[in-house]
Amino acid sequence: MIGVGGKRGLLLDFGGVVTSDFYGALRAFGVREGIGESAVERVLRDSDEGRAVLAGVEVGSVPQHEYARVLARLLGVSPVGLLGRVLADLRPCQPILDLVARARAEGIKTAVLSNSWGTGEYDPYDGYDLDERFDAVVISDRVGLRKPDPRIYRLCVEKIGLTASECVFVDDTAHNLPPAEDLGMATVLFTDVAAGVPQIEALLRPV
Question: Does the CA dihedral 173-179-182-186 come out positive or negative?
Fold first, then answer.
């Protein structure tokens, strides 16, 4: 199964890699709410307040309930159960979970490295059994760091006992890849399951 790339560690983003399409979920929410499919991305990327509150919740300095309140106001929607509504379409990405299981069986260390939407009433990680499926789980608000800060990549690598140059990092957001590359990791921009899984396999160490 594993290719000849020589890597011994695999670091995976959660939303959009371990799960189904993250940005697709945001767009589906916008359509359901009648605010336009790009509404959430526009608020979080193009609004100063949206960017600031996202950065805050990701490092744990803004409580989850405050993030939801601000996001609801910026979007013009109800705050009740907002985060669950926004991410309602997320499902486990079974081909990735199967890859993780095969990799671990062959001695490759695996980790989740996720920018979170805070710890609180809504838990997007519930039901994924991450602690059982992976050797390490690094969630941004729990460690006070977020991607693309190089320190969170180093922390994740340390938790699986490898060096950065021994690892592959996979994310569905392009701007999260350069810091991993600068540390010496191989990277995969994961936007298509059918293409992405073989690309990851090719980078991992041979049997």
Answer: negative
Phi, psi of 139 (to 5 degrees): -110, 130
CB neighbour list of residue 107: distance below 8 Å, 6 or more residues apart: 8
Mean pLDDT of 21-50: 97
**DSSP for the chain, written as a single string:** ---SS-B-EEEE-IIIIIBS-HHHHHHHHHHHHTS-TTHHHHHHHH-HHHHHHHHHHHHTSS-HHHHHHHHHHHHTS--TTHHHHHTTT--B-HHHHHHHHHHHHTT-EEEEEE--S-SSS--TTTTS-HHHHSSEEEEHHHHT--TT-HHHHHHHHHHTT--GGGEEEEESSGGGHHHHHHTT-EEEE---HHHHHHHHHHHBPP-
What amino acid is encoded at 4 in this protein?
V
- Comparing C-alpha atoms, which of 63, 62, 54, 83 is closest to residue 173? 54
* 186 bridge partner residues: 168
Please name the residue that has the structure tokens 């790009």: 38
Q: Are 130 and 137 in contact (CB under 8 A)?
A: yes
Q: What is the distance between the alpha carbons of residues 132 and 81, in angstroms, rounded to a whole number?
A: 28
pLDDT band of residue 184 (cuts 50, 70, 90) is very high
| pLDDT score, position 207 | 47
pLDDT tens readout for residues 122-165: 999 999 999 999 999 999 999 999 999 999 999 999 999 999 99
